[in-house]
Each structure stands twice: as C-alpha cells, then as structure tokens.
C-alpha cells in the first residue's frame, strides 16, 4: 500500500446516530462486540445458513411467518425474548441448533446499526473473533482500483453514546491496517486506546459499562469468549436483506 | 478522600445530546477547548465583568439591547460574526477591550452545551488553561457532606460526536482527581487517552479534526494557547444566566 492511496476511516460511536454520513460510496463495518456481531460470526461458523436482521420482536415474528423452518433469536436489555428459540449468547448458536437454518434476529442495538447502514453498497459485521479476516479483506478491497471512498465503522455498542469494547475492537482493526490510514478523532482515539490496552483486553471489557451488565447477569463466559481475537475466519456480509458468509473478499 | 465516597464522573461526548442525564443533583463541567471555554476563562482573567451566553446571533443581538454598554462576541463555523465586536479568539479578549464590560456571546457548540446543562444546580467552564483550579475546586466540593451525586462533563467540542481536544482535557481532569473516581466508558477512555498523550498534547490537538480546521484558518496561535495547562487560576461559573468569576470554591 505504500505510496498508494490512504484508507479514510470514520469511526462513529453508536447506532441511531443523529448524523449518519454519506454512505453510498463507503464500505461499512458494523461492530457490536457484546454480543450481536460476535454471535452472528459464531452462528455462521456453526453452519447457520443466513441471519435476517429485524428491528423489533414484532417485525421478527412477522418475518418468520414468511420463512418456514426458520428460528427466532435475539435479546432485549441483554435478556432472551419470550417465545424465541435463541437468545443473544453465542453459546446458544451451536451446530445442532443452527446448522442449515435461517435465523430471524433482533437485538437492541446491533440490528438497528445494520439498518442505519443500509445506504452503503457493502456491509460487513466485525468482532474480535473474526478481526484478522476482516483486516485481510479490507486490504484486498483497497489494494487496487477500489470503488470505495473509505470505510465507516459503526460501533453499535450499548444504548449509551460511547462503548469501550466496540471502540477497542475498532482500534484493533485500525492498528492492524497499518499506517496508511486517515482517521477521524474517534478513530485516532480508538487506535490509542487499543495500543494502551492490547495486553489487558479482557480486563478492559470486563470493567466497561456493558461488561459490568453482562457480569451482573452471570454472563462472564460470553464476555470472555467475545473478547477473544482471531479465532473464526468468517466475514458476515449483508446481501439482499440477509447476513451470509462472504465467500469472495 | 481515601475511604470516603467515590466521585462519580460521567463524560458525555458533545453538545445537543439526545439523552441528557438527570442533572438536578450534579455538578456540570462544560469543556470546549477550541475555543469557547478557553476564551471565557481568558476574558474573565482580563477583567471582563460577565459573559451572557446566547444560543444564536439573533438572540445575542436582542440580549445586548437590554444591556447598554455591553459587547457582542462569538463565532459561527470558527469565523467572526458580521457586526459583532469580538470573535471567538482568546486574543480578541484583551484587557483594553473587555475590562469592566459585559459580553453577550454565542458560539456554535459551547453556548448550546451551557444551555443543555441548565437543569444542574452548579455549572463551571473548564479548559486546559484553568484545569488546576477546577480540580482543586472539585476536590473541595466533594470533600465533606457533598450535596452533589457526582459530576457530568459535557465535551461541547465540534459539531461531530467525539472531539479529541475536549476528551483529552476531561482526561487531564480525571487523572488529576486521582483514583477515587467511578467513570463511565468515555471517562475511562479519556483518562487512558490523556495518559498516552500527556507529553504531546499540542501535537494531538493540532492533528484533531477541530485542530486541523483552525490551522487551515491560520489560527495556530489560538490552538497553541488553548492547549496550555494551568496558567489561569479562574473558574467561570454560571449564575443567574451570567458567567462570572467564581470567588468561593
């Protein structure tokens, strides 16, 4: 990349932004470490055929009617939804349950961020679990004759406006992309935060507001799993309203 | 403070927050390093009697009518407003101009943040220039029988949602308050960012989005001045709609 074009990266702190930037020429990366995008990556790794994002439980129920044999998954306030087949824990999405299935999924922030990104021509889901694959795919996309004018990262996070786990994950991505990047203030902050925390990622995530909420619900196992970098070589991509395994980078 | 109560600190990333927290029992600190709060501190240090914040240039003109002898100050998009006596540069607010005067002031984000904070019983303006005085006054407030349930920091910053100079300034405040603090995610991030940047504050601020805008307007002198810690022992406080020099901490 040296001497080539820089990659413009704009990191935005949460879903439901009042000011969504122009996305028509951007690659959008959605990050919701705890736990929506981590769970999507895991579901696809375990043989799930596709994830259909829905904004509300009601919309999820409606969509399921049109998809016989599909499952319902998701959460509200980190808790499973009554009558749904699966929660938002990656450990719910085991091969025996999700293999070969479509899953209609709704989460408080993750699916809203995906909806907010809908104007973009390409949308990927990132987490610590699949970060290496995301970084390699970005570098391939921006190597030559790239049709994108840059990357917008949506940190879907919590209902609050700044989420430390998602920002650290964005920082890991930026750090791995090397020096050939142009960052907005939050992107620069994400890189510094990741560099300062690289050796204590799990502790940082455990002490974050969202981490503390999961701990109080007895979900430390989910938190530790979701904080593990580079164990799943999968890029979930949004294609015609369904999140599927990207086969070409 | 050891063994005493912790100070709860919630840092919020910008003015016009869609979710303003409950402020009725909070001390609010407004930070707009580039340049509103830095300029207010400077104006008071140079003998200005009071600053009256106004949301818009029109409101400023109306308020001035009721205050004979007062001056008009402020900016839109970092530029002076036509017909106003003073811009938003601290170097405009010299003793010969502002000594003994009231100034009606409107800035893009700073005065909006002050308005957003209006439910709070106590509102102070902070910048690098007066940080040591702010920290000492906070420690005095929270030493014994404190009537506040914590501190909310508004980083008024740019029109964007995360401003690196303001976040670094909040981080300096948190770091100086010591370990007896409980932080939200952005507060924790601010502390880490400040620790990582302590020896290169001016460079960090120069490279931020807002810093780059000031540089492009030839305002590097303002930027360097506003990045200088602890040179003015003044706490601007909002009292009955006017910002004045706090005489008791």
TrEMBL record, chains A, B:
SUPFAM superfamilies: ComB-like. It is an enzyme of class 3 (hydrolase). Its EC number is 3.1.3.71. Its cofactor is Mg(2+). One of its GO terms (molecular function) is sulfopyruvate decarboxylase activity. Belongs to the ComB family. This is Probable 2-phosphosulfolactate phosphatase. It comes from Desulfosporosinus metallidurans. The gene is comB.
């Amino acid at each position: 990349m040296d001497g080539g074009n820089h990659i413009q990266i704009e990191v935005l702190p949460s879903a439901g932004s009042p000011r969504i930037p122009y996305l028509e020429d951007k690659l959008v990366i959605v990050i919701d470490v705890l736990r929506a995008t981590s769970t999507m990556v895991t579901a696809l790794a375990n043989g799930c055929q596709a994830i259909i994002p829905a904004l509300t439980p009601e919309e999820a129920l409606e969509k399921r009617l049109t998809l016989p044999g599909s499952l319902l998954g998701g959460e509200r306030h980190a808790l499973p939804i009554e009558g749904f087949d699966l929660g938002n824990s990656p450990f719910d999405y085991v091969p025996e349950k999700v293999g070969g299935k479509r899953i209609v999924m709704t989460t408080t922030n993750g699916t809203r961020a995906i909806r907010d990104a809908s104007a973009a021509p390409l949308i990927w889901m990132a987490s610590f679990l699949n970060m290496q694959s995301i970084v390699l795919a970005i570098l391939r996309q921006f190597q030559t004759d790239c049709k994108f004018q840059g990357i917008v990262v949506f940190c879907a996070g919590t209902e609050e406006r700044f989420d430390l786990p998602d920002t650290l994950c964005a920082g890991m991505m930026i750090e791995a992309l090397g020096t050939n990047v142009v960052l907005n203030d939050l992107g620069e902050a994400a890189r510094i935060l990741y560099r300062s925390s690289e050796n204590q990622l799990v502790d940082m995530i455990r002490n974050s507001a969202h981490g503390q909420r999961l701990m109080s619900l007895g979900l430390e196992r989910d938190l530790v799993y979701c904080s593990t970098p580079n164990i799943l070589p999968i890029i979930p991509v949004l294609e015609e309203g369904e999140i599927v395994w990207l086969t070409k980078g």
